[in-house]
Design brief:
There is one protein chain. By secondary structure, the protein is an alpha/beta fold. It folds into two domains: about 30 residues; about 240 residues, 3-Layer(aba) Sandwich (Rossmann fold), CATH 3.40.50. The protein has seven helices and 15 strands. A seven-stranded mixed β-sheet has the order 6-5-4-9-10-14-11. A two-stranded antiparallel sheet has the order 1-15. A two-stranded antiparallel sheet has the order 2-3.
């Protein structure tokens, strides 16, 4: 009798707690094993290569480190329009055609006529508001065999875009720069599967060459693992790399804080064994 009552009370308590979390916008789920989260971090550890890093874009937020390997890249595609277009304007100086997309703004913050803008979000399907990365690139009138550069900051929608981009198009991007969000959710099983699949897809033909924490957020220490919630991460295609070794010095001299908040340093576990 008592055991039945205790079981009912336990179920009632669980349902009450679950409903409370749902009202707050949270849900219960299985936690990811600590080893898997550590393996995720290890997989994206950055390498120093024969291509030194340079900075393109603004001195603070909106500037990114890329390999000094920009010659003969035909075009830069930049989903997500910020307060400045300095990164894209710098790409023009290297002879790239430059394309921007964002449905949340009416126009780009630049008077440069060489920046080509469409008022659409880059996503996983095509309609009046969304365009896939493949369609956007394939309708840009470029040489189908040329190398490209991708710079993407779309506030968490990067997982959807990367999950749906074709391997053939990914292979055309010599350099890719992303702002990656919500990594402190890696302990959530559904998010982990999505994020891990995206990064494993990127790592098929590219190597991580730099990581910079966005200091909008502080480092989250969960289950003994330090997680940077938002990072700027740069990839270089493997056929451009002749030499590489683990990068061991962070921050890079060209790194800069994104905000006026206290600096966030990349945890040593993200780049040291």
């Amino acid at each position: 009798m008592f055991s039945d009552f205790a079981a009912k009370l336990e179920r009632y308590t669980f349902r009450t707690f679950r409903n409370y979390l749902a009202k707050k916008g949270y849900s219960l789920g299985h936690a990811v094993d600590k080893k898997k989260v550590q393996e995720f971090i290890q997989a994206i550890r950055p390498y120093a290569t024969n291509k030194p890093l340079i900075r393109l874009g603004a001195e603070k937020d909106g500037g990114y480190l890329v390999p000094d390997d920009l010659e003969n890249i035909e075009a830069c595609f930049s989903p997500g329009v910020g307060a400045k277009s300095k990164f894209e304007e710098d790409c023009l100086q290297y002879g790239m055609k430059t394309f921007l997309a964002d449905a949340s703004v009416e126009e780009i913050p630049s008077e440069n006529d060489h920046l080509k803008f469409i008022k659409k979000f880059v996503g996983s399907y095509n309609n009046e508001i969304f365009v896939t990365l493949d369609k956007w690139v394939n309708t840009a009138g470029l040489n189908p065999d040329s190398d490209l550069l991708l710079q993407m900051d779309i506030e968490g929608a990067e997982y959807e875009v990367l999950a749906n981009v074709s391997p053939e198009l990914l292979q055309r991007f010599r350099i890719m720069v992303f702002e990656i969000h919500f990594l402190d959710h890696l302990w959530n099983e559904d998010f982990y599967r999505s994020a891990n699949a995206c990064f494993q897809k990127l790592l098929q033909n590219h190597t991580c060459v730099h990581i910079h924490p966005n200091n909008t957020d502080v480092v989250a220490r969960i289950n003994g693992v330090e997680i940077v919630p938002t990072i700027e991460i740069t990839f270089l295609r493997n056929d451009r790399i002749q030499e590489k070794e683990r990068a061991t010095k962070f921050p890079h001299p060209l790194d800069a804080d994104n905000t006026l908040k206290p600096p966030v340093v990349l945890p040593q576990s993200w780049y040291q064994n």
